[in-house]
Write a structure and sequence with these properties.
The complex is a heterodimer of chains A (95) and B (377). By secondary structure, chain A is α+β, with helices and mostly antiparallel strands. In chain A, 16% of the residues lie in helices and 24% in strands. Chain B folds into two domains: 33-264, NAD(P)-binding Rossmann-like Domain (Rossmann fold, 3-Layer(aba) Sandwich), CATH 3.40.50; 275-369, Rhodanese-like domain (Oxidized Rhodanese, domain 1). Chain B contains 16 helices and 13 strands. In chain B, helix 7 links the parallel strand 4 and strand 5 (150-156). The chains are: A alpha+beta (95), B alpha/beta (377).
Amino acid sequence: MAVSIYLPAILAPLADDERVIEIAVLGFQDTVGSAVRSLTERYPGLAPRLVDERGDQYPFVAIYLNDEDIRFVGGFDTAVRDGDELSIVPAVAGG
Amino acid sequence: MATTLAPNELSRYSRHLLLPEVGKAGQAKLKEGRVLVVGAGGLGSPALLYLAAAGVGTLGIVDFDAVDVTNLQRQVLYGTSDVGKDKTRAAEAHLNDLNPHVRIVRHAERLSSANALTLFAAYDLVVDGTDNFATRYLVNDACVLTGKPNVYGSIFRFDGQASVFCTDEGPCYRCLYPEPPPPGLVPSCAEGGVLGVLPGLIGVVQATEAIKLLLGVGDTLIGRLLLVNALAASFRSVTVRRNPSCPACGTHEISELRDYDAWCGTVAVPDGVPEITPRELAARADRGEPLQLIDVREPHEWELVHVVGARLIPLATLDAEWHTLDATREVFVYCKGGVRSARAVADLRKRGFDRAYSVTGGILRWREEVDDALIAY
């Protein structure tokens, strides 16, 4: 029972160069917020890049639950289930 | 009067004419099409090449830069003999040779709040090939205000994004990212690097979307964000929704262009950090003075080139390492161009290093003033 979190290249160095990280879920009461918390507990260096000082989402880091931007479906309170995929999609500006 | 294609154009575009989705009528639409490419760099190069080859009739190019040797690893519009030339002139020469039926309009200037609306008004759509957040928000807001689609692409290291923003039915860039990251949080490609073929992949997607929009065929990336991971060979797309409270395309609170550099905090160098020029510092080293010289770049940059006698302490590790420095002596800090070193010096001074100095212009200026045998990157 797990969700997969996909990190972009820019953040992978803060997670031992892993780009896909499995986070165990209990199957109930799990949310995007609790999955992100588990991730930042495992890799504390990621925390300031994913959430602000109050633990809220940044406006320049989109988080997708499967195909949906979580801001449009319930933010960090959105429920997650076994097999869900969370993608971290920060703004990049290179050209 | 309907646009007509000369016999030599019909031959040139024959593979298009064979496609029912294009045909003569579609090719005439492309010839009537006017596309403005903002930034003739990594993304703009492949986009311009394919748009010109496809026969888009008018191609505007906005770029104020000159071709640099470090561009050639990915900016395939230029050759070695173009180094030092104005990008729009070099681009015009290559594109004229590729397809003389295309009219190239050079805009050798920086896109700004003062010129964006006038520039955009003369085109059907805009291809965003810029390389910084301030210009990306400027492109987006100007597209919303002028009603022009924003064919977006962005890259970093091995990851790329592409979408089509600012159409009547879809979201804009601000719906996806309401605000830019604070300066310094996200490195630029000049600091973090980029795989040379990645802007090729993304720039060609942008050209594809621009051509589809002009032709009015297929499903475009309106409402979707294409995510490319070159290392994993993965292409996937996610939904981008229109945000009803978006200040640009939702509430229209943004009714005119603003000062995007100030809003994005583009000038990230802390104010008033004491500096020393490479020339002054090298003169002191030549006199045999023992110097406490710190390099705050990343290890891979250090491996590429560094100043002999310096010590590597990447900026991110300064927090853990500063106590190993001698605060009773002067500390000289350099990086690539002077931004990271200024931040390090501001930090060191807060910790009581009253004689910490940032080396002006970093190792790039060191190369110019002191040692031209060093590699530029």
